[in-house]
Amino acid sequence: MAKNKLSVCVIGLGYVGLPLAIRCVEKGYKVYGLELDRAKVKMINHGISPIEEKYLEENLPQFTFQASADEKVIKKSDIVLICVPTPVDEKFYPILEPVIKATRMIARNLKKGALVVLESTVNPGVSEEVIKPIFDKAGFKIGKDVFISHCPERINPGDPKWNVTNIPRVVGSFEKRGLQKALKFYKSIVTGEIRPMKSIREAEAVKIVENSFRDINIAFVNELAKSFDKLGIDVKDVILGASTKPFAFMAHFPSCGVGGHCIPVDPYYLIERAKQSGFDHEFLKIARKINNSMPAYTVELLQDALNEIKMPMKGTPIGVLGVAYKANIDDVR
């Protein structure tokens, strides 16, 4: 492991930030982790992963770093990575408070000339409309006192092949020098391709498009599942048949809904931001409506099955095997 002269601060040590911090240590960077959950900080400083994930459990004991709840660690850092969550509220509006809070902490403790990279998933325009004004107000000149980039996180928990070390990434920035700094950093820690984007707004749009693509395709097969049930057709058999075509088809399978934190959330970022600019994403909204209907539809199927064997829904014990959104992970969001 070659030593690197630069230091990195990762803000948010969850499913995105923790593997990123470990990878930076592995690549020789001096790493600080900023995490407000003190119990999590304590575990990480003892080399114990707070997340049940093979990559983390194997690598954290080898590549330890200093985790802290004190924002002053930002002062020591040449590169600051924002990896905080960006959920939506009950009306599906993006909640940007974690990103804003992290950015304000950076502005209070910024090392002059530092590179700040937002990895959190946001709607197009957040870097320009939310993050930049915070640094402007603090008196920092973008491209001189601070360099701001966006590299949307890509993580696939539980994947034995693709992880933080090799998943290709995209990077956008406000200006050329900041872009070059970000490209150099990510090329030093990731073996996959690092693609420069024309603008920071286009980099923000990439992650939204990726997850909206999946949401739309899942909605398509979920609707097929409902239709083919009426027609007496095995939808899975049809999808496997269609999968024999070696081009222009990508298999997706129906389920009781869309799980995880990203796919059920990210399309709303684009829906709401586009609405502010006068565009109505009808297609995305229909996909969300279909996918949101699947839990209730699943219960209807269960009720029909119980009726067939003359058992009532009320009072019948039901076992749910697996509550995470996919196998072999502990993320139940």
Question: Can you describe this structure?
Answer:
The chain is of the alpha/beta class. It folds into 2 domains: 7-200, Rossmann fold, CATH 3.40.50; 208-308, NAD(P)-binding Rossmann-like Domain (Rossmann fold, 3-Layer(aba) Sandwich), CATH 3.40.50. The chain has 10 helices and 8 strands. The chain has an 8-stranded mixed β-sheet, sandwiched between helices. Helix 7 crosses helix 9 and helix 7 (200-231) runs parallel beside helix 10.
Give the key terms.
globular, Rossmann fold, 8-stranded mixed sheet, alpha/beta, 10 helices
What count of structural domains? 2
CATH topology of the largest domain: Rossmann fold
Number of strands: 8
Alpha-carbon Rg, integer? 22 Å
Give the fraction of residues assigned to helices.
40-55%
Per CATH, the architecture of the largest domain is 3-Layer(aba) Sandwich
Q: Quick one: overall form?
A: globular
- From the N-terminal CA to the C-terminal CA, the straight-line distance is 36 Å
- Sheet with the most strands? 8 strands, mixed
> Structural class given helices, strands, pairing?
alpha/beta
SSE topology string: EHEHHEEHEHEEHEHHHH
Strand order of the largest sheet: 3-2-1-4-5-6-7-8
Tell me the strand percentage band.
5-15%
Average pLDDT over all residues: 94
